Automatic annotation (TrEMBL):
Residues 125-334 form the O-methyltransferase C-terminal domain. It comes from Streptomyces griseus subsp. griseus (strain JCM 4626 / CBS 651.72 / NBRC 13350 / KCC S-0626 / ISP 5235). The keyword Aminoacyl-tRNA synthetase does not apply. This is O-methyltransferase. Keywords: Methyltransferase, S-adenosyl-L-methionine, Transferase.
């Protein structure tokens, strides 16, 4: 290759790299627009209306009572996001990604997607710069109360949040029971366990233990129906309470899944100390959450960092490193024993601790 050809090749590679960089930045700049398009589609029920077949834009607009041309433009935006395909002009099908946004699809993510595209979840993000300057949540500024207080005041939103958390837990719940020896325990206490998605999965896989599901009345609202559907209502006791005030006695394994990241270190230590007050010396504590690496991996973009900002903006908690968990365990009267990653694509890890 001549020097001229090498220069042309170098210029071509440079132009390609520059184009890819600009494309990546453009995708981020337009990201909020994509979120709003998705949220609108979910609220209108677009994916459920299209279902497993093909539907023309004008027919969809007629069934939704929306403007035909504007509906077509929304559908094409969704196709541009690879949630729909347009096999011929004006006709649309759901893609594999669009399918999991149907309520009747196995492994549906529709409740989770609805929750995280809801204005209640998004409005605090408009003041992210304030959170970065102050280190404080902005949800309270916008709504005049904290996130969980707002849920208590809006039962329908609370139920939607519970279902979103259940959907977000399912992959982890399918995996966790096979990566820890739960069968050696007699009584598992799931602190803040919501509708029991994780506890039910563990008890289905391990026949020996019994379970206690501990949460607020709002958190437990959907639990009886789920446990009855799973045939586990006879093996699980529901206890209503506040983990900032106490923890149920009598367990030899205590579980905290997606609880610790909701709170600052001081409040997390309170939760852990209440568990330490009742756990036997031979008992174990499992914290199931993402664990941040010491530095951000250059080759693995990870939504856990956006989750960390969401904790900052909306609830005041944060995601943590292994060292952070070790310090937190010490403050709560525990000693960190191990951190076990769950297999990909799961981003959660099992943090195990014992009473100190």
């Amino acid at each position: 290759m001549t020097a001229h050809h090498e220069q042309v090749a170098d210029n071509s590679r440079g132009a390609t790299a520059d184009w890819q960089a600009r494309k990546a930045v453009s995708r981020l700049v337009l990201g909020q627009m994509a979120t709003q398009a998705l949220g609108t589609a979910l609220r209108l029920g677009v994916f459920d209306r299209i279902g497993t077949g093909e539907l023309r834009a004008e027919a969809l607009a007629g069934s939704l009572g929306t403007h035909p041309r504007a509906t077509l433009r929304l559908l094409r935006a969704l196709a541009g996001l690879q949630l729909l395909s347009e096999p011929e002009p004006g006709a649309f099908r759901t893609t594999a990604a669009g399918n999991v946004l149907r309520a009747d699809a196995p492994g549906t993510m529709v409740a989770m997607a609805r929750m995280f595209t809801d204005p209640v979840m998004l409005r605090g993000w408009d003041l992210l710069d304030e959170s970065v300057r102050t280190g404080e949540t902005t949800f309270d500024t916008v709504f005049g109360t904290d996130f969980f207080g707002h849920l208590r005041e809006h039962p329908e939103l609370s139920a939607a949040f519970n279902e979103a958390m259940s959907q977000g837990t399912r992959l982890t719940a399918e995996t966790v029971p096979h990566h820890y020896d739960f069968g050696r325990f007699q009584r598992l206490v799931d602190i803040g366990g919501g509708d029991g998605t994780l506890l039910a999965s563990i008890l289905r896989a391990h026949q020996e233990p019994r379970g206690v599901l501990f949460d607020t009345a709002e958190g437990l609202a959907q639990a009886p129906r789920r446990l009855a559907r799973e045939g586990l209502d006879g093996r699980v006791t529901l206890e209503t309470g506040d983990f900032f005030a106490s923890a149920p006695a009598g367990g030899d394994l205590y579980l905290l899944k997606s609880i610790i990241h909701d709170w600052d270190d001081a409040r997390c230590a309170v939760i852990l100390r209440h568990i330490r007050d009742v756990i036997p010396d031979h008992g174990s504590l499992l914290i199931v959450e993402p664990v941040l690496p010491a530095t951000v991996p250059a080759d693995r973009p990870d939504n856990v960092y956006l989750s960390d900002l969401n904790m900052l903006v909306n609830v005041g908690g944060r995601e943590r490193t292994a060292d952070d968990f070790a310090a937190l365990c010490t403050a709560g009267g525990f000693a960190l024993r191990s951190v076990t990653p769950l297999p990909a694509p799961n981003t959660f890890q099992i943090v195990e601790a014992s009473p100190a």
